[in-house]
Amino acid sequence: MSENLPPCPKCTCAYTYEMNTLVVCPECGHEWVPGEGDQAADSEERVVKDAVGNVLRDGDSVTVVKALKVKGSPSGIKAGTKVRSIRLIDGVDGHDIDCKIDGFGAMQLKSSVVKKA
């Protein structure tokens, strides 16, 4: 056992112990991999902003600010289309909003093409 274990990042308890590859806090029960705690905190605090700089959160309503082409659809999504109840995700190619759009169904959008409604 190592005597130089880090304190718990959640409750700052100094009595942490090793269990296999994890470090465990006996007070709050938090488990983490040493050295990866800072990266996990950064990913939890990820901020997604819309085209004009407003911070977006799960459940917000947004408006599309520019016309978008949709594969398999003769008409795309028009500017001004309102999208309700968005969900923020870590998507592919910068698509960080998961939503349902009336007439198109479920799709992913980039936060750079919407503004908070």
UniProtKB/TrEMBL annotation:
NCBIfam families membership: phnA
Name under which the protein is recorded: Alkylphosphonate utilization protein
Domain Protein YjdM C-terminal: 48-117
Parts forming coiled coils: none
Protein family according to the UniProt entry: Belongs to the YjdM family.
Domain Protein YjdM N-terminal: 5-32
Pfam families in the record: YjdM, Zn_Ribbon_YjdM
PANTHER family: PROTEIN YJDM, PROTEIN YJDM-RELATED
Lineage, uppermost ranks: Bacteria, Bacillati, Actinomycetota, Actinomycetes, Kitasatosporales
SUPFAM superfamilies for the chain: Prokaryotic SH3-related domain, Zinc beta-ribbon
